[in-house]
Amino acid sequence: MKVELNIQSIRNWIGEVDKPLIISGPCSAETEEQLVTTAQQLVTHNNVHLLRAGLWKPRTRPNSFEGIGDIGLTWLKTAGEEIGVPVVTEVANAQHVEKCLKAGIDALWIGARTTVNPFSVQEIADALKGVDIPVFVKNPVNPDLQLWIGALERIHQAGITKLAAIHRGFSSYNPARYRNPPNWGIPVELKTLCPELDIICDPSHIGGRRDLLLPLAQKAFDLDMDGLMIETHMTPDAALSDAQQQVTPEELASILRQITFRTQQSPSPEFENNLEELRTIIDLIDKDLLEKLAERMKVVEKIGEYKRLNGVTVLQIERWKEIIRTRLLRGNSLQLTEDFVMELLRQIHKESITRQDHIMNQDNTTQPLIRTDET
Ligand code: PEP
Ligand code: MN
Predict the structure, then answer these.
(1) What band does 12 get if pLDDT is binned at 50, 70 and 90?
(2) Cα of 27 to ligand 2 centre, how many Å?
């Protein structure tokens, strides 16, 4: 499935910003003084490109701080003007969009709890028709790439050309280390499908803790992401929302100093040569892997034929369990992680079942056993 987005880089809109793009500011606007002081500290210590603050906060439980609301629009604008940096806030419905446009807010982001709902995203898209304001779309709370792409497409179809995506991690029933565990494969796949889209990482909402900001930001840049949205507050411990994950602007500068930035290419010819050699080996291994998989599928089809002739079911649960048990053991002895081997086996098994199901029902075309239809 191709993703056709005709977009311009938000980094160019800001003014030919090289990577990384830094979006920072408090989780929530609380007072005008908090916003202006945080903004001033941000530019004193950092090269920040966009000042963020949430005005209408989507909180999980009621009776917590749900944002300062409309009054914060002018505070945010004032703080941005004070430091000469454009400002960005979260919108969750058409009224938010209208209020932001009226107040002259420079850019908008759509939060994870909104991206998840196509009705809300469409409402925002409709309110954006005729304006070309930059929009950042956070991933939906659930790890659904199609839903994320769908939200980007809805906003794009409204005429928005300055679009970027933000990876902020995904909800988990049992978050152990991270507040919203990251799933790096999803933004990487998004970038593969749409290379011109800038992808920003939000380590604050992924980690939920200050000490995780640096390793998460490092990981994002190792994956060649384009920037960070990271929460800062002049007095983080006193913040009215997300206190544990906010740092001072000075601490942000220290985090950014500790990051190792790597480039896509190295100027060293020796490095390029060695890389080329290793990649040739990888190419050969991949060729072997694919040929082996094709060979395996041929045997699978033969088995499917026997099963059909003998009236035996496609799915043989005991055999499947045995495959899992033995392959995981083997994978383990080869230093392959259990998650990786399991995922690989699932994909192979799914394809095998689809093929055998096809053979079983070759006379009367029925639905495949495992459906992958989109909803
Ligand atoms: C935020 O950025 O303050 C926010 C609410 O983020 P998310 O939508 O990622 O939860
Ligand atoms: Mn927050």
Answers:
(1) confident
(2) 4
Task: List b or e across 198-235, with b for residues whose CB sees 16 or more CB atoms inside 10 angstroms.
Answer: bbbbbbbbbbbebebbbebbbebbeeebbbbbbbbbbe
- Beta-ladder partners of 91: 110
Domains of the chain: 10-258 (3.20.20.70), 299-374 (no CATH)
Q: How many Å lie between the centroid of ligand 1 and the Cα of residue 344?
A: 33
pLDDT for residue 245? 98
- The CB of 179 under 6 Å from ligand 1? The reply is no
| Three-class SS state of 63 | coil
Given the DSSP bridges, would you call strands 227-231 and 21-25 parallel, antiparallel or unpaired? parallel
Looking at residues 79-92, what average pLDDT do you find?
98
Instruction: Show the beta-strand stretches assigned E in the chain.
Output: 21-25, 50-52, 87-91, 107-110, 135-138, 163-167, 198-201, 227-231
pTM for the whole thing?
0.83
Residue nearest to atom 3 of ligand 1 (CA): 27
Query: Which listed ligand is nearest to 23 at the C-alpha?
Result: 1
Residues 6+ positions from 118 with CB-CB distance below 8 Å: 147, 150, 151, 154
Q: Which of 123, 214, 143, 126 is nearest to 183 (CA)?
A: 143
- Residue of 135, 33, 48 whose CA lies nearest to 83: 48
Q: Are 5 and 152 in contact (CB under 8 A)?
A: yes
**Distance between Cα 209 and ligand 2 center (Å):** 11
Instruction: State whether the beta carbon of 52 lies less than 6 angstroms from ligand 1.
Output: no
* Residue 363 pLDDT grade (very low, low, confident, very high; cuts 50, 70, 90): low
Ligand nearest to the CA of 202: 1
Q: How far is the CA of 375 from the centre of ligand 1 (A)?
A: 26
Residues less than 5 Å from ion ligand 2, measured at CB? 27, 242
> Any idea what the Cα angle at residue 346 is, between residues 343 and 347, rounded to 5°?
90
Structure confidence by residue, pLDDT tens digits, 131-168: 989 999 999 999 999 999 999 999 999 999 999 999 99
Interval 88-119: pLDDT, tens: 999 999 999 999 999 999 999 999 999 999 99
